[in-house]
C-alpha cells in the first residue's frame, strides 16, 4: 500500500530541513520564509490572509510575526479596525530577499535534478489537484 500523503509529508520535511540548513545562517527559518515569500509577492496583507495561505492557526502566525518584527523583517500596523493587523516587509527584508531566495532556489535545483520538465509539470498538476481535494 502506498501512502501518498505520507510521501508528500516526508518530502516537505526534507525540504524544510535542507532549507533551514541553508537560510538559518542568513538569519531566517523556513516558517518565516513562507511569510517573506508571500509578502514579497503581495507587498502587504492581513494576518488572516497569512493564516489562510499557510494553513496555520492565528496564535502560531502571531508568535512568528512578533519574532520577525523583533528581527526587523516585518512591520505590523493596525488595519481597518483594531482587530485587523496589516503586515509588510521592511527595507532590511527587501535587502536580504535575494540571499534568501538564492538559498531556497538552490534547494529546489538540487531536488529536481534528473527530473524532466514533463515529469515536473505532471507532479505540479497532481499536487494542485490534491490540495484542491483537501480544501
TrEMBL record:
Q: Which domain of life is it from?
A: Bacteria
Which terms in the Gene Ontology molecular function aspect does this entry carry?
DNA binding; DNA-binding transcription factor activity
Output the InterPro entries linked to this UniProt entry. Answer: HTH_MarR-typ, WH-like_DNA-bd_sf, WH_DNA-bd_sf
List the PROSITE patterns: HTH_MARR_2
Entry keyword rRNA-binding: no
In this protein, which residues make up the domain named HTH marR-type?
1-132
* Xref: PANTHER family: TRANSCRIPTIONAL REGULATOR, MARR, TRANSCRIPTIONAL REPRESSOR OF EMRAB OPERON
What is this protein called in UniProt? Transcriptional regulator, MarR family
Organism encoding this protein: Clostridium saccharoperbutylacetonicum N1-4(HMT)
Amino acid at each position: 500500500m502506498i501512502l501518498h500523503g505520507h510521501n508528500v509529508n516526508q518530502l516537505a520535511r526534507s525540504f524544510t530541513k535542507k532549507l533551514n540548513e541553508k537560510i538559518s545562517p542568513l538569519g531566517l527559518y523556513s516558517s518565516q520564509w513562507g511569510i517573506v515569500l508571500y509578502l514579497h509577492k503581495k507587498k502587504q496583507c492581513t494576518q488572516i490572509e497569512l493564516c489562510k495561505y499557510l494553513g496555520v492557526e492565528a496564535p502560531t502566525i502571531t508568535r512568528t510575526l512578533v519574532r520577525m518584527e523583533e528581527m526587523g523583517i516585518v512591520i505590523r500596523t493596525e488595519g481597518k479596525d483594531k482587530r485587523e493587523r496589516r503586515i509588510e516587509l521592511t527595507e532590511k527584508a527587501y535587502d536580504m530577499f535575494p540571499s534568501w531566495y538564492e538559498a531556497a532556489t538552490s534547494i529546489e535545483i538540487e531536488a529536481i535534478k534528473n527530473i524532466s520538465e514533463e515529469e515536473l509539470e505532471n507532479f505540479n498538476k497532481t499536487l494542485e489537484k490534491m490540495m484542491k481535494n483537501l480544501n
